[in-house]
Design a protein that fits this description.
Shape of chain B: globular
Number of domains of chain B: 2
Shape of chain A: globular
Helix content of chain A: 25-40%
Distance between the termini of chain A: 26 Å
Largest interface: A-B, 210 and 209 residues
Largest sheet of chain B: 7 strands, mixed
Number of strands of chain A: 12
Order of helices and strands of chain A: HHHHHEHEHEHEHEHEEEEHEHHEEHHHH
Structural class of chain B: alpha/beta
Strand order of the largest sheet of chain A: 1-7-6-5-4-2-3
CATH superfamily of the largest domain in chain B: Type I PLP-dependent aspartate aminotransferase-like (Major domain)
Radius of gyration of chain B: 25 Å
Distance between the termini of chain B: 62 Å
Number of helices of chain A: 17
CATH architecture of the largest domain in chain B: 3-Layer(aba) Sandwich
Strand content of chain B: 5-15%
CATH class of the largest domain in chain B: Alpha Beta
Number of strands of chain B: 17
Radius of gyration of chain A: 26 Å
Helix content of chain B: 25-40%
Number of helices of chain B: 15
Strand content of chain A: 5-15%
Oligomer: heterodimer
Chain lengths: 498, 448
């Protein structure tokens, strides 16, 4: 292919090369067709690459160098809490006696991991002020879906199946409406007010028999604390509804304020955010769900329970919503989060929230001198700038600013989200960044602003220092190529048809 | 003192000055004061790194992983080449997030593109996504995909030979939704295809089958896809991807959607997670696929480049109208599978699948011949098979454990419709002839 600058593993393939030597077969070999009827066997060989071990290592090491992580530098991706991933967590998660546990081995032989899961849940309940929960959900969105199922189960039990509406603020993560819809609820979007907050006024119109509840993120995605939360939660409860807490932004208040005290009935946490586990290029994460007493009976099975004789997985729960995932969730992520909980303790966790908020407010104060800050209030862990003025004055968009940041070796903020801020740049520094890193970021942002004024072309053409330049998204969507095919079209066609 | 928090007292002073407040507390003044915790959380104070290490070591120490394992039923003890964990420990990969900024994330995007290609090659289907949570939730996503693709459909059929946990996850997913789930019974260990055919009618979006099924038996799907297509329904096939080194894949059976779990391909059991759910389909279903998809495009200079594509399907754009709510997936675990498959390669995948078949059949032959255990049914299998013990499983398993074996999964505990005494035994390439001999001897003694 023309212009190729980094081959695909398939393009390195050479017939006959091997990357791994399996043990020799030490039982008598029989013809495959004598063991499994021939018509059950595959006809076409799968087109996997043929490469040596050296090539595998060089190839994927080269790819790693074309990628960017927190270990390389600042990653202020709003609402994603890209904090440092402590190395002790990686080390202990690699213990053989965790790694090789089979999910169906006898409980007596897995007491260590069951104890860890139980203690982690105890800790998470304490952090959130909730009663008990489940570690099964694989990610935040999976936790949301779980929470919505809990809503459903509760209303069904109460005989209130007419409660079909879930209120979702316009500032919410896209997963909220998607999860509520998937669970069978009707999503009603409510508008944030001029403060950037959900007001009691905005929920008042919906407090009827069809109300199931509300999903809120607090602090919200503008990084602002929902100040009216106590009034809102009272109004929702008085109307017979339930409250769901999206824990994506818990980092701001961890150790200071608990969602349980705000009146939430269900909480999901993202262990890959607040609890420092690595984001892994998009996962695995973990989205444990914690509930108030009201929803205890409906928690998924199996439940991790502690009895006099040890820890058990309990499946006998009459009103349970059932099973959410194949086994027990992303256990390796739980191990890391538990190590973090031990390291931080109550003193450390409280400090996390404080310093995350300090860092965000410091950056906000510094940057609002040069960029537009639509909601100029004390923020929590993140804040949202708008590049609207830049766009009007110099034709430079939030995307251009983001792409130019790449040239300075900084991961850009979240852009174009939340949707209620035009040309949004959503910045979350986290507590693990030093004053020097923050100052450097301000310096770079100011340089970019200067460039926007003097030579906006640089921004339009950015990035120029990355392995590839700006990529054609329209082409990709119009003619999607989502897999590699061998060069010769002919062989491809035959293969697919066969 | 916490090693991850870089702030000195002077830093904090200087920052508060810029913000214009005297104390950090004041940054929380917008929160109703009755919400602020008065007392510290009731969790222990933080520990130094080495103390954390010791605590974790001690917890790990109360797990038993030394036994020779014949456990399977969805999680398998396979060899993992050293290169896999080496690449996974590159922190450019594991400390990154979803590659929204493509120019800075070409490495991961290309790896996902390679993953998608490998999954397509293994399953014989045309498109794949970046990963789902696990093989069980993949069934729910595939079910939604079929419901969204088949007009005026409201019914899903699934076989009772689907893993019991997959069936449970499906039922949870569709409870309180206007979708009919119908379970198709089995006959002698595989799906009763006559009953299945009889249940086909307008409104059936898809049929979900698993092969090898959860008992280990290979389902014979000859002619099934045509029947389903004539009814306007889709065939969804869940498969252990390692078996596809030898077994007929979804594409060759004429299936529309392939799903499964890539744990056997480079991922340790880790008490069930993380693994990777994969989903792959015919090309015409691409725009209704759930989750992230890496695509190929070009940069301004015409260089090949990769990015997340078809995002208009996704929750952050479409919100409640998205094809799925999935955001975080299992990317790093999918990278493990990619490196694994690259390392094994075209010949290795066949060889390892062949070894699994050979060894499982070797042990099966010896057990049936030399012990009182009987085959549950007489059906073809891959690397896992059920045997019927003359005693209850609960009487046998602990005694086998004393002898150093996790002898198999008690199927009755997993699925009460299976008689007590049925044991699912999985044999991977990792089990040696010596271990299997010792296993046969031990079982003989226990059943004596």
């Amino acid at each position: 292919m023309s212009g190729t600058n980094n081959p695909l593993i398939f393009e390195l393939s050479k017939q006959g090369r091997r990357g791994y030597r399996l043990p020799d077969l030490d039982v008598p070999h029989r013809k495959l067709a004598s063991l499994v009827e021939p018509h059950l066997l595959r006809e076409q060989e799968p087109g996997l690459p043929e490469v040596s071990e050296v090539e595998v290592i060089r190839h994927y090491t080269a790819l790693s160098r074309r990628n960017y992580g927190v270990d390389l530098g600042f990653y202020p991706l709003g609402s994603c809490t890209m904090k440092y991933n402590p190395k002790i967590n990686e080390q202990v998660a690699d213990f053989e006696s965790f790694v090789h546990l089979h999910p169906l081995q006898p409980e007596e032989s897995a007491q260590g991991i069951l104890a860890l899961m139980h203690e982690l849940l105890v800790g998470l309940c304490e952090v959130t002020g909730m009663s008990w929960g489940t570690l099964q959900p694989f990610a935040g969105a999976h936790g949301e879906f779980t929470g919505m199922k809990l809503f459903k189960a509760c209303f069904e039990k109460r005989g209130e199946t007419g409660r079909t509406k879930v209120l979702v603020p316009d500032s919410a993560h896209g997963t909220n409406p998607a999860s509520a819809h998937l669970a069978g609820f009707e999503v009603v979007e409510i508008r944030s007010d001029s403060r950037g907050l959900v007001s009691l006024e905005s929920v008042k119109d919906h407090l009827d028999q069809s109300l199931a509840g509300i999903m809120m993120t607090n602090p919200n995605t503008l990084g602002l604390f929902e100040e009216d939360i106590l009034e809102i939660s009272k109004a929702i409860h008085d109307a017979g509804g339930l409250l769901y807490y999206d824990g994506a932004n818990l980092n701001a208040i961890v150790g200071k304020v608990r969602p349980g005290a705000m009146g939430f009935d269900v909480v999901h946490l993202n262990l890959h955010k607040t609890f420092s586990t690595p984001h892994g290029g998009g996962g695995p994460g973990a989205g444990p769900v914690l509930v108030s007493d009201t929803l205890l009976p409906f928690l998924p099975v199996p439940d991790v329970v502690k009895r006099a004789d040890g820890y058990h997985l309990e499946n006998n729960r009459h009103d349970s919503i059932g099973r959410l995932s194949g086994f027990y969730g992303n256990v390796a992520v739980m191990v890391r989060a538990y190590a973090y909980l031990l390291t931080m303790g109550r003193d450390g966790l409280a400090r996390v929230g404080e310093l995350a908020v300090l860092n965000a407010n410091y950056l906000k104060e510094r940057l609002k001198r040069s960029f537009t800050l639509p909601h100029d209030r004390t923020c929590k862990h993140e804040f949202v700038l708008s590049a609207r003025q830049l766009k009007e004055q110099f034709g430079v968009t939030a995307l251009d600013v983001a792409k130019r940041l790449l040239d300075f070796g900084i991961h850009p903020p979240t852009v174009y989200f939340p949707l209620i801020v035009p040309e949004a740049l959503m910045i979350e520094p986290t507590e693990t960044e030093s004053l020097e890193v923050l100052d450097r970021f301000v310096e770079v942002m100011e340089t970019i602003l200067q460039e926007a004024k003097e030579n906006p072309e640089i921004l339009k053409l950015a990035p120029s220092r990355t392995p590839v330049g700006r990529i054609d998204e329209v082409l990709a969507a119009r003619k999607p190529v989502v897999r590699w095919y061998p060069e010769t079209e002919e062989s491809t066609e035959t293969w697919v048809q066969q | 003192m916490i090693a991850y928090l870089p702030h000195t007292d002077e830093d904090i002073e200087a920052m508060l000055d810029v913000i214009g407040v005297a104390r950090i507390d004041q940054l929380f003044a917008d929160i109703p004061q009755e919400l602020i915790l008065k007392d510290p959380l009731e969790i222990p104070t933080g520990l130094p790194e080495h103390e954390v290490y010791r605590r974790m070591k001690s917890l790990a120490g109360s797990n038993q992983v030394q036994n020779v394992s014949f456990l399977g039923c969805g999680s398998y003890d396979h060899i993992i080449p050293a290169v896999v964990s080496h690449i996974l420990s590159r922190s450019e990969f594991y400390t990154s997030y979803t590659p929204y900024q493509a120019e800075m994330s070409q490495g991961f995007l290309q790896a996902i593109f390679e993953f998608q290609t490998m999954i397509c090659e293994l399953t014989g289907l045309e498109v794949a996504n970046a990963s789902l949570y696990d093989g069980h939730t993949a069934a729910s996503e595939a079910a939604v995909l079929s419901l969204n693709s088949v007009r005026r459909s409201d019914t899903l059929l699934y076989s009772s030979t689907l893993h019991p946990f997959t069936r449970q996850v499906l039922r949870t997913h569709f409870s309180n939704l206007p979708v009919h789930l119908e379970e198709i019974p089995s006959l002698n260990g595989t799906t009763d295809l006559e009953v299945l055919s009889a249940r086909l009618r307008p409104g059936v979006a898809g049929v979900i089958l698993q092969s090898p099924n959860y008992l280990g038996y290979v389902e014979d799907l000859s002619g099934l896809a045509e029947k389903l297509h004539d009814n306007g329904s889709l065939l969804i096939l869940s498969t252990n991807p390692l078996s596809l080194g030898v077994l007929k894949p979804a594409g060759e059976w004429g299936a529309d959607i392939g799903i499964g779990d890539t744990q056997p391909l480079g991922l340790p059991s880790y008490f069930g997670g993380p693994s990777v759910g994969y989903i792959t389909a015919t090309g015409k279903l691409l725009r209704k696929m759930p989750g992230r998809i890496a695509g190929q495009s070009r940069d301004q200079e015409g260089k090949r480049a990769f990015l997340l594509t078809l995002q208009a399907r996704e929750q952050h754009i479409k919100r409640e109208r998205a094809t799925s709510n999935i955001c975080s997936n299992q990317a790093l675990a999918a990278l493990a599978t990619t490196v694994y498959l690259a390392t094994l390669g075209r010949q290795g995948i066949r060889e390892i699948a062949d070894q699994n078949t050979q060894k499982a059949h070797y042990l099966y032959g010896r057990l049936v011949k030399e012990t009182p255990a009987k085959p549950l049914f007489d059906r073809p299998f891959f690397n896992e098979f059920p045997i019927m013990l003359p005693n209850k499983a609960a009487d046998v398993l602990p005694r086998m454990e004393e002898k150093g074996f996790f002898a198999g999964v008690d199927l009755h505990r997993l699925d009460p419709t299976i008689p007590n005494g049925a044991l699912a035994i999985a044999v991977t390439e990792k089990r040696t002839c010596g271990e299997m001999e010792a296993f046969v001897e031990a079982l003989k003694e226990v059943l004596r």
